[in-house]
UniProtKB/TrEMBL annotation:
Residues 297-518 form the Fibrinogen C-terminal domain. InterPro entries: ANG-1/2/4, Fibrinogen-like_C, Fibrinogen_a/b/g_C_1, Fibrinogen_a/b/g_C_dom, Fibrinogen_C-term_domain, Fibrinogen_CS. One of its GO terms (cellular component) is extracellular space. Residues 30-54, 80-103 are annotated as: Disordered. GO terms for biological process: angiogenesis. Residues 80-97 have a biased composition (Polar residues). It comes from Echeneis naucrates (Live sharksucker). This is Angiopoietin-4-like.
């Protein structure tokens, strides 16, 4: 009776311990490699352990000793909860394991769990069976049967323990494998994340680089656009300039064409003039021949001056023969048929310095030079000319700057040689100064060899050169030395007309001519 009770109690203890061992081994981590061995040592009942309990059961002549480990917080009633917690820890391991490629360990664990469940169920069945058997046979079962039963149950318990330990070991191995797998995967993941980080960094770098390049590109584009617009503007400017130049060229071309036309007209005009001159010369020569052949021409053809020539219908400037006074010898003179209506008998002309005007009294009396070029007609001829009637004097002047001027005297008379060719003038007008540059009343003619001037202690003709109506010595001398351009200023002995260009300016060209006052 008492032995049966004992064996029942023992069985409960055994079960309790089994669950405790399972729970303990399930909590072993992968780093605790010796976890399996420890639980085995406990199962084997090593006597050196600190926390262990000895249970001795006496049944008749036989006694059974059990060595059980002390379990903290372990209670018989909480056995199922202990198991439950073990299961949850297992499932924690399951949850920690990677989901990918984790089918195999999960299946295995599931299998082991099933086995454990089966075992538990089996044990519960056994327990209930034992209880029933004990209750039924407790009265009439002899002690040796009880003894046999107890032994059998112990054997079964031992087998169960071994089985459980084996399962636990397998579970640990699986767990380690899972953990190894997990750690490997974790390492891989770590590596992956590392490489991912690296890639991300590279990506960032490349992104920033791309941004930098884009900035650069946009700046370059801006620059290119600016340059393009600038070049476009320059091109436009150049095009306008080209158009302007083209128009200038066009206008110049048309100007050149018109000039060419004018040149053609002028040259044809020129040839016409030349023809006219040749005709004139021919008629002059026939006239001369006629004169020399027949002696004196008819009185009607004996012109007294150029005014007569002009009135006879000759309006071209040039050489003509006139008969001054009652003379029968013709005199060659140059007639100016253009100035102020023409009809002028020219008695002095200078324009290029080809004729020397440093002459003697007799030379000035008779005249010198080329009647067609520079010349002095002669004081004697001039005296006779102005004695024919009332004559006017005109003086034509031109300076080196191209300015022209004239002085005109309404009345002009030259005395005889006995009067030293005194000069009488009246009625001044003209553009070469508001005053006359010639002394008007009775100035006598002087040359280097005849001093008739009004300078008591000097010889004006020697100082100022040439022959002239010197006063003392006066404001003019158109027979002075001819100075070329560049040498014509600050010359007291040059060709002077004081009230035109001052006392020391030598003029470019001069002409002195006479015409009847009533022309
Ligand atoms: C557990 O028991 C069930 C029936 O209860 C059975 O089908 C199964 O194969 C058993 N598993 C093991 C591992 O013994
Ligand atoms: C008890 O066990 C012994 C040996 O195991 C056996 O010989 C004997 O017959 C058993 N007794 C009963 C009643 O079963
Ligand atoms: C994991 O298992 C591999 C073989 O599958 C083994 O070579 C390696 O040493 C194990 N690592 C650890 C930490 O157990
Ligand atoms: C000469 O020129 C004048 C104008 O200066 C003109 O009237 C005349 O027709 C021209 N004569 C010839 C032949 O071209
Ligand atoms: C010219 O001769 C005429 C008479 O034929 C005379 O009356 C006149 O005075 C003379 N003229 C001169 C300038 O000698
Ligand atoms: C001055 O003009 C005349 C007539 O035109 C000419 O014959 C002479 O060669 C010219 N002399 C000089 C130095 O130019
Ligand atoms: Ca003198």
């Amino acid at each position: 009776m008492q032995g049966v009770n004992l064996s029942w109690w023992f069985l409960v203890l055994l079960l309790l311990w089994t669950f405790a061992v399972v729970a303990d081994s399930a909590s072993v981590t992968s780093s605790e490699r010796g976890g399996v061995g420890r639980s085995q040592r406990r199962g084997g009942g090593g006597g050196a352990e600190k926390k262990k309990r000895y249970h001795r059961i006496q049944h008749g002549q036989c006694s059974y000793t059990f060595i059980l480990p002390e379990l903290d917080g372990c209670q018989a009633a909480g056995s199922t909860e202990q198991y439950g917690s073990a299961r949850s820890r297992t499932s924690v391991v399951q949850r920690d394991s990677p989901t990918m490629d984790g089918d195999w360990p999960t299946q295995k664990l599931q299998h082991l769990e099933n086995t454990m469940e089966n075992n538990t169920q089996w044990l519960q069945k056994l327990e209930s069976f034992v209880q029933k058997t004990l209750r039924r046979d407790v009265a009439n079962i002899p002690s040796h049967v009880v003894h046999n039963q107890t032994a059998a149950m112990l054997e079964i318990g031992t087998n169960l323990l071994t089985h459980t330990a084996e399962q636990t070991r397998k579970l640990n191995v699986v767990e380690a494998k899972v953990l190894n797998h997990t750690s490997r995967i974790e390492i891989q993941l770590l590596e992956n994340s590392l490489s991912t980080n690296k890639l991300e960094k590279e990506l960032l770098l490349q992104t920033s680089e791309i941004g930098r390049l884009r900035d650069k590109n946009s700046r370059l584009e801006n620059k290119v656009q600016k340059l393009e617009s600038q070049q476009r503007g320059e091109l436009e400017d150049m095009r306008q300039e080209k158009n302007r130049l083209q128009s200038v060229v066009r206008t110049q071309m048309s100007a050149i064409e018109s000039l060419e036309r004018q040149l053609r007209v002028a040259s044809s005009n020129n040839t016409a003039l030349q023809r006219q001159q040749a005709l004139l010369m021919e008629s002059v020569h026939t006239l001369i021949n006629m004169v020399s052949a027949t002696g004196s021409p008819p009185r009607s053809q004996m012109w007294r001056d150029c005014a007569d020539v002009y009135k006879a219908g000759h309006s071209v400037s040039g050489l003509y023969h006139i008969y001054i006074g009652n003379r029968t010898e013709p005199l060659q003179v140059y007639c100016d048929m253009e100035t102020d209506g023409g009809g002028w008998t020219v008695f002095q002309r200078r324009f290029n310095g080809s004729v020397d005007f440093q002459r003697s009294w007799s030379e000035y009396r008779m005249g010198f030079g080329d009647v067609l070029g520079e010349h002095w007609l002669g004081n004697e001829a001039l005296h006779h000319l102005t004695s024919q009637g009332q004559y006017s004097l005109r003086v034509e002047l031109r300076d080196w700057e191209g300015n022209s001027a004239h002085s005109q005297y309404d009345r002009f008379t030259l005395g005889s040689e006995r009067q030293q060719y005194r000069l009488y003038l009246r009625g001044y007008s003209g553009t070469a100064g508001r005053q006359s540059s010639l002394a008007s009343h009775g100035t006598r003619f002087s040359t280097r060899d005849q001093d008739n001037d009004n300078c008591d202690h000097c010889k004006c003709a020697l100082m100022l050169t040439g022959g002239w109506w010197f006063d003392a010595c006066g404001f003019s001398n158109l027979n002075g030395i001819y100075y070329a351009i560049g040498h014509n200023i600050r010359k007291l002995n040059g060709i002077k007309w004081h009230h035109f260009r001052g006392p020391s300016y030598s003029l470019h060209s001069t002409a002195m001519m006479a015409r009847p006052y009533d022309f």
